[in-house]
Amino acid sequence: MRWIRAVTACAKHPASQLAEAYVVARPFPLNPKHPERICWGCDRYCADDALACGNGSGRVMHPAETQGEDWYLAWGIEPDPRRPKHAAL
Questions:
Q1: Under DSSP, is residue 12 helix (H, G, I), strand (E, B) or coil?
Q2: Blockwise average pLDDT, block size 10, the chain, 89 residues
Q3: pTM, two decimal places
Q4: Residues near 36 by Cβ (< 8 Å), separated by ≥ 6?
């Protein structure tokens, strides 16, 4: 998964005190309908038969496939209140 480094500055503080936040580039679904059809290794979400990463390996499975539907609770991830089927950023 690719992370974007977002750097923000507040008008009240000098530029040397920048706040950094790391956010996921695309929303990550908590329990997709057919996770077996997609590679979850990066933000491209390629089809399982058309991997664009070029790493030569098979697709990366969604955590719901390996750890069950409530996987995000064990990882400490909260659902987004605006989009309950996606992880909160």
A1: coil
A2: 43 47 69 91 84 76 93 91 86
A3: 0.64
A4: 48, 61, 65
